[in-house]
Amino acid sequence: MFRKVEINIPLLDAIKQIPKYAKFLKELCVHKRKKMKGGVELGGIVSALTRNDDLIAGTRQALPKKCRDPRIFSIPCTIGDCTFFDAMLDLGASINIMPTSIYKSLNCGDLEPTEMTIQLPLGVLEDVLVQVDELIFPANLYVLDMEDETPGKGSTLILG
User: Fold this and answer.
1) Residues 6+ apart with CB under 8 A from 51
2) Which of 71, 96, 118, 138 is surrounded by the most beta carbons within 10 Å?
3) What distance separates the 2 farthest-apart alpha carbons in the chain?
4) What are the structural domains, with CATH classification, of the chain?
């Protein structure tokens, strides 16, 4: 008879009614921090510093120097016999792009048709070996019909 009885109460009320379970949940959720000499509390994150002047002065000196924004993150890479000295790198993207002029100069073969709609790409070159320093990795390069803004340099690659 009682197998089909359901009671709907808020979780917080249920926890308050069972003190041992509430204590168990609290111990699971609260991260106990160990205190070390010098007044620094360590857990996953350093949470507080003491008012000790020597410690505070030492901490300020250890902070890294602020640097200006590099604006564009670029790396040298090689595809076949062509070297690109400043290929733009976008760590947030998951697509590699090249203009038509670079595709024609590489002579990599025919493009595969694609269903992508970024700017109506001409197609995709699959598994092109891209070398960055000593690392060689395969990449799918989407070829866009666009003007090469830097003729002669060949640096309009975007690696993501």
Assistant:
1) none
2) 96
3) 84
4) 8-62 (no CATH), 74-159 (2.40.70.10)
